[in-house]
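Please, structure for the following, as tokens.
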Amino acid sequence: MANPTGPKFSPSPSSPTGEVEYPPEVYPDTPPTLSQVLAKWFWRVSVGAVVLSIVAHLSFLAISKFIVVGGGSGGGFGPSEVGMAIINETDIPTQDAAMGEVGTSAPEDLSGPSPELATLSPSVSSDGGGAATELGGVGPISGGGDIAGGAGGLGMGGSGGGGTSFFGLEAKGSRFAFIVDVSGSMSVGSKFPALKAELIKSVVALGEGGQYIIVHFATGADALMGRREWVHSDEPGKRWARQNVTQLQSGGNTNPKPAFDIVFALRPKPEAIFFLTDGEFEPSVAEEVRLMNSEYRIPINTICLETQESQALMQQIAKESGGTFKYVGSATAPGGGGNP
């Protein structure tokens, strides 16, 4: 007996067996056919591809907008206005005018020496008996070249102290070392007061850009007030010399070797050395000084004060270094007397 209220179904024409296929909504537990699975998969893939393509195109448009026009000011995707400058021919400077502006700072004559190089030239003394002639044309400020001090050859001019003199001996440069005898024999007569006066006068005569050091020796040696470094010859430095040179005391034997050790340990090296003594010292000192100075060839200007006991050694030290020697027969007249 037929069910008058139930749905009627006809066999599916695509069913090879002729069995009746019922839709899933009527029978939920019925598994979908292969054709239904493939149709649903193709649909999902197509929709996903379309959505992905739309998103990719929109992203590309947004990125290209920022790359080409810089993102604009409004953040939209509309075209941005790009300003263009139009230059008239009258606004373009001619080649001659441009070259004229550059040429105003160029030197007119390139054949002459540069002002910067001119300052590096050594100052050569015109005095035939000075250190310049004994150094074979190198000049008293060459000093043989101290690489560690950044000064050698033409560069030894330093910061421009100019020059000074000591007991009538002149030297040029900017760094001067004074090695002076303060042994007990210097207290005889007026030698010690004359020494102090000459030291102060020499330091005061230095230019503002100069430097100096005073090393005193007797049995041992030390720098003035223990200051084993260069002292600037500006006003404070000159005032320091005036205050402390007067404090020197005499006593002990004559041994200049430790004083030369202090001077040759300086960095940078001196450009000229003044060496004064009134006594006799060991002959080996001259050879030791020569060895210390063999690399630098710093002119050593030697002075024998009221004695001729060490004159031969002092002359040897001066000659081997390219310096000059002087004998001062009277300390009360430091500029006169003796062998120039």
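The domain at 124-328 is CATH 3.40.50.410 (Rossmann fold). The beta strands are 163-166, 169-172, 175-181, 211-217, 221-223, 231-232, 272-277, 300-305, 325-328.
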